[in-house]
Amino acid sequence: MTASPPTPTDLAFDLAPIGLLVTRDRVIERCNRAFVEMFGYSRQQLLGQTTEMLYPSHAEYEDIGARGVRSMLAEGVHRDERIMIHRNRELFWCAVSGHPVDPAHPYACAIWAFEDMRPRRPVRMALTPREREISALIVAGWTSKQIAKNLNLSPRTVETYRLRLMRKLEARTVGELISRVLGLC
């Protein structure tokens, strides 16, 4: 018995130029070629696994997951830019968008798009998970008060992290800090 040719829908999913992912309860159900290539695993290694394997740490998996649920419940979609981890342990920036099938149950089944930002935004420094999280929000233009509220921290704690990041990356201004985090200088 011969296999039937792929449908146009299957071809569009599999050959899309960005990484596409279907998850159920944060478990990988389906992914396309671009996603497989982006993370360095085979499709068989990804299917049936939780997405936690794609995050630099368990804390980042939990924190970003909690933010994702909040934004999907409030807005019906979640978008962010975050640092992810390749199979070879290389960290890289990724733009991520997720849309739940049922807005009332965001992670029951969700469709995700991943854009690899390595060509324009290399990761050039070793940061802790919290520093990565805060630096991503600074790059997104969030204020210390907004970051504090979102991460359940005090604004003073966020300011301490911002100063630590500036020292670590030898940045004199927030603009310079953003440029260094983005790998522009």
Automatic annotation (TrEMBL):
Single GO term (MF): DNA binding
SMART domains: HTH_LUXR, PAS
Span of domain HTH luxR-type: 119-185
One Pfam family in the UniProt entry: PAS_9
Domain PAS: 32-57
Gene Ontology process terms (BP): regulation of DNA-templated transcription
Keywords tagged on the record: DNA-binding, Transcription, Transcription regulation
Name of this chain's protein: Tetrathionate response regulatory protein TtrR
